[in-house]
Amino acid sequence: MSATTSAPADPMGHALLDYHRGRLDASLTVHSNVAEEEPLPAAYLFRSLWEMPELERQALDECRGRVLDLGAGAGCHALELQSRGLQVKAIDISAGAAQVMQERGVREVASHDIFDAALTHEKYDTLLMLMNGIGLVGTLEGLAKFLRHARTLLAPGGQILATSSDISYLYEDEDGALVFDLNGPYYGEVTYTIQYGEQHGAEFPWLFADASIVQDYAEEAGYEVEFLGEDEQQQFLVRLTPLMERDA
């Protein structure tokens, strides 16, 4: 390796590693193009079952068979499912997050992008995408791509369990009317960067898909859509089940 070559910045991974090793005040700063910067305490990624929102607990109860936990973070969902006797593979694009999960006892861990072709070597009964997990697809185009890709990952009778949010409230004026450019990009396509201390990660897209978008894209891709719950923050849990085998 040359002196000018370095590993990609991994602020999420460094924050999780620091917290795991005892720095309990470790906290990320989240920057976006739609809201003011917000703190994200690393502790939130280590929450126990009863610290999780109700929608997450409901999703865990709906998991079955072999589970692929996408964007698994510090592994709190994977560890809970393991404790229930399920076979879980947890993936995260952050190498630091993958290391934390291994150290915490998640049995199958890998550092992958959700579109990584290596994932198609196995089949899963449940694809789990929590903490606004549909956002991992990045954009509406990414959502369509993922729904095709997911068919190559799912075993017969398999399901996707995912949460997403409608963030149209961010565009309300003082009278409650929505103000955004109908000819511009979809309002739920957000750009983020994450900072930990002086380390800044690369900019990345994140999708907040409202329920009608999820239903339209999933039905177009040949999935049955079942909305399982919604909370007061306009976040919802959805189950997507392929209706028939299609070419990936």
Automatic annotation (TrEMBL):
InterPro entries: Methyltransf_25, SAM-dependent_MTases_sf
Protein name per UniProt: Methyltransferase domain-containing protein
Matching SUPFAM superfamilies: S-adenosyl-L-methionine-dependent methyltransferases (SSF53335)
Organism of derivation: Hymenobacter psychrotolerans DSM 18569
Keywords: Methyltransferase, Transferase
GO molecular function, one term: methyltransferase activity
One GO biological process term: methylation
Gene3D superfamilies (UniProt xref): Vaccinia Virus protein VP39
Residues annotated as domain Methyltransferase: 67-158
